[in-house]
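Standup notes
- HV: blocked on the assembly model, inputs below
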Amino acid sequence: MAQRPLSPHLQIWRWGPHMLTSILHRATGDGMALVGLGILLWWLGALASGPEAYATFVWAASSPVGYLFMIGLTWAFFTHMMSGLRHFVLDIGAGYELDTNRFWSIAAPIIAIILTVIVWTYLLLRDGGMV
Amino acid sequence: MGNGTSIGRVRGLGPSHEGAHHWLIHRFSAISNLVLMSWLVISLLMLSDYSYETVSAWLAQPLSAVAMILLVASLFWHARMGLQVLIEDYIHNAGSKFGLLSLLNLAAIGGAAFGIFSVATLAFGVQN
């Protein structure tokens, strides 16, 4: 590789919430791409294959590890969605004022956690989860 | 790479050498992900239970099947764009980068094809 000046990396900067939100955006997006899409395909493939294959999927999804994955994916989705919505605003050139930027970089992941809690509270109170 | 204007001297020097089109496609697919995932989350929460009968009957309906097929296409497209950036940012060896991008294309197109085929199978009722 040609020796060109590199932009300063993580350890150079004083930490701020926008950095965590940015890193979470990439981590949740790539995490869903690598793990979530696999689970989505398993679910769709099981539905297409019939009741027995679907029962295996439900057995795995409703095991303790399965709940960890499902709740984790719900959180990853809402986190990526909220920071993605923030990116839409930044993309049109708005929201760069220091206070505004700081506020939404903190609010986005918190709103995501609240949405995750709402969805799973509803599911678990309704009929005990994924069955 | 030109050597005239200041933009001409730096154009194409990023890790992927280009990007405006990639950037736009990433946003377009983000918008369709947002619309279609909202549909999926609300639909799943409105189902009375998650038994095979309930879920397969719901997904076999034309509107659900079409929305799910579009969602699979949109998700895999968006994920492909995102993983491409991940590879370009962290894999600096040209050969490994090319290999991983090839693998990514195979996985993204193969995965999307499997998902769409599964939904079509269910909707056309050809299984079992």
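- HV (later): unblocked. Chain B touches chain A through 34 residues (CB under 8 Å). Chain B is about 80% helix and 0% strand.
- Next: hand off to the docking folks.
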